[in-house]
Amino acid sequence: MELCTVTYDHPDAVKLIDGVQKVYVERYGDEDITPVDPAEFSAPHGFFVVGYLDGEPVACGGWRAHDVAESPLRPGDAEIKRMYVVDAARGKGLARRVLAELERAAREAGRTRMVLETGSIQPEAIALYLSSGYERMPNFGSYRDDPLSLCFGKALVPTAE
């Protein structure tokens, strides 16, 4: 898979984001209502990547910076949004590659912790995050009080140069 940094509103990103929103509708009955500004995913305060197989967009994910202390979020956090792999490309480790790239880019941008919100009806996402070193944390954001919401975090350890 070739990973390419793109804008959040790049046509391939939009196509994949539409796909993940359809999954949310199927599983939860509605799209993700979290407010998102595409500019939040541009450097230096954000990042968005699309993964391509044979020239076709098959995976995506991004992060946006949080620099205001709003418990449990804290300055230095990078919130993951729109992690997605199309059905036909699942089971090949692509989500793990996107996640590793998000972590690398966030670490390089000086972020100190990755945080995310997912839902309890997404067992494949939960398994990915747990197996990648993420731990449960108090809920935050638009779904703070939603019983189906689960939030996770992982400290980003600087790499030796």
Automatic annotation (TrEMBL):
Ranges for the N-acetyltransferase domain?
A: 1-157
Instruction: Please give the SUPFAM superfamilies that the UniProt record associates with this protein.
Output: Acyl-CoA N-acyltransferases (Nat) (SSF55729)
Q: Which InterPro entries does this chain map to?
A: Acyl_CoA_acyltransferase, Bact_Acetyltransf, GNAT_dom
Transmembrane stretches in the record are none
Q: Which Pfam families does the annotation name? A: Acetyltransf_1 (PF00583)
Which keywords describe this protein according to UniProt? Acyltransferase, Transferase
GO molecular function per UniProt: acyltransferase activity, transferring groups other than amino-acyl groups
CDD domains listed in its UniProt record: NAT_SF
Protein's name according to its UniProt entry? GNAT family N-acetyltransferase
